[in-house]
Amino acid sequence: MPAAPGIDGLRIEVVGSIDDFLALKPQWDSLAASMERAVVFFTHDWIRIWIESFAADKPLYIILVHDGPQLIGILPLYKEIYFTLKIFRQVCLHSLTNSCSAVSGVIARQADMARVLEAVVSFLGREQRHFSRVILEFVPSDLGVVEPLQQACAKGWAQISVKPWNGSYYLDIDGDFEAYSKGLGKSSRKNLRQKTNWMEKEGGVRREVCQDYDPEVFQRFLDLEDTGWKKELGRPIKCCPKSSEFYRCVARTFGPKGQFLMLSLFVNNKPAAMYCVVTHNGTGHALKNAVNYDEQGFVRFSPGQMISQDMIRAFFERGLKRLDFYGCCYPYQSHWADKVNRKHEITILKRSDFLSRLCFWAKDRLKKHSSSCGSEDGLKKI
After folding, report:
1. Which residues have CB under 8 Å from 374's CB, separation 6+?
2. Are 300 and 294 in contact (CB under 8 A)?
3. Helix 44-54 with 25-34: angle, nearest 10 deg
4. How far apart are CA 113 and CA 361, in angstroms?
5. C-alpha–C-alpha distance, residues 106 and 63, integer Å
6. pTM
7. CB within 8 A of 57, min separation 6: which ones?
8. How many CB atoms sit inside 10 A of residue 55's CB?
9. How many Cα atoms within 13 Å fall on the side-chain side of residue 66?
10. Hey, how many other C-beta atoms are within 10 angstroms of the C-beta on 33?
11. I want to staple 157 with a disulfide (CB 3.0 to 4.6 A). Which of 1, 125, 310, 337 is the partner?
12. How do 133-140 and 88-95 pair as beta strands?
């Protein structure tokens, strides 16, 4: 799509082809690196891997905001078609998110965020005949998107809905690991010592850190994750070829850069637990863990907690500044961190489109119903 005028002299451009997206890499990464909270999920490599894994057949709708020759804002979206109640067809502009990549938002510096969002909302108002609504999932609070976007939609064509999501725990890393451990509390330290002793009595304990993509280590991770409750529910990565290939591509891409780690804990010379981590700009993101639920003898020393302790120690030793547990807030993570970066689901609707608002209302009602009775929410994605 050709460039269109924005507000305050800004220029809007929409990229819809994969070739045009690939050509943006130098400008894209320069802008993403300039953000105050530069996160790996906004890098060109990460988004390319996600598109190739999950949206190769979907139309892209990547909004670029230029100030003269300078690229100052990016909103990565793709087009998705939904059916509500199997009747109402809705064309949505959707963030590049799913369970594998649970962060989205606008790529821009804080100084430019408000006017970038105003320009984007104004542009979408002119293009609203081409879509029913805009859905941004998993938008973190600390990126400074939510309030400026609400202000930009406060008047005019857009009606905005912001719903909280539980976010993820994170830990600011400062000092050394021993000092951090002492701050965990007496009962927590006692519990960890006890479980460490139980683990050592099992014998054959060793730890490994793989700092690059190793096919054998990666396959071990997939096999280990395919045990226990995940296997019973059919939710391991191994069961989804797209997810398996996504994580494999992440390892292949970020491993040679020194930004990918696979931590392994062995007990009785058998893999007990593993963690898959990607690092960027001083932050380590704990993408996925795997625990050997097939070995019943491992349960009493909580191998998931032991590998978490190893991971945190490794972060201190590598001089990282923040550990992001990523995903949802799980109870076991609260033993290690008490700070939560809240996330939000943002939906932008047309005020004038009764059908769009009706479908949104129906979807919301059906979601509430499904959460109480366990049935599907009536939405079908094609």
Report:
1. none
2. no
3. 120
4. 29
5. 10
6. 0.89
7. none
8. 17
9. 15
10. 12
11. 125
12. parallel
